[in-house]
Specification:
Length: 155
């Protein structure tokens, strides 16, 4: 489904025919992503198609099993291949170690911290802005596929 106000596309994540989470994505720029223009410009060029993404696994039984990483990589591949994204950005709270670990496993790198960017339970939290460019994702896929081919050849 798509939010008309911000053009945010929202999706339910299913695993074994059960809804276990949620993701959303939209094209972003410095203004609508609430990142200072100077910092945003260090990572993305003006002509880049940049998507901001969010992902959440709500069912605790599906956490810490690599499912979030698999779901994230499917979303990343779709945005790079089907939506022609040049770069993806994600913005976990700095204290969300589980999410940050997942995003690092997917190839995201830390770009900057924006202080007191997001409010939750009446408390403002810092956000870690993370990003990955299409070429970085493609290199990671090729390295992974090359490693699999090598493993298959040595069996």
């Amino acid at each position: 489904r798509e939010s008309r106000e911000e053009h945010v596309e929202q999706c339910i994540i299913e695993w074994d025919s059960q809804a276990i989470g949620y993701c959303q994505f939209c094209i972003v720029n410095a203004g609508n992503y609430e990142v200072p223009e100077a910092q945003f410009g260090q990572f993305a060029d003006k002509q880049d198609v940049v998507y901001g993404i969010d992902i959440f696994l709500g069912e605790a039984d599906y956490r810490d099993r690599g499912i979030g990483t698999k779901c994230m990589k499917v979303l990343m591949k779709a945005l790079f291949d089907e939506r022609n994204a040049d770069m993806l950005m994600i913005d976990p709270k700095t204290h969300n170690a589980r999410a940050i670990r997942c995003y690092h496993k997917c190839g995201f790198r830390d770009l900057c911290v924006v202080p007191e960017r997001e409010q939750q339970d009446r408390i403002y939290h810092d956000s870690l802005i993370m990003g990955i460019r299409k070429k970085e994702f493609t290199v990671e896929l090729n390295q992974r596929d090359g490693a699999k081919s090598h493993q298959e050849q040595t069996k």
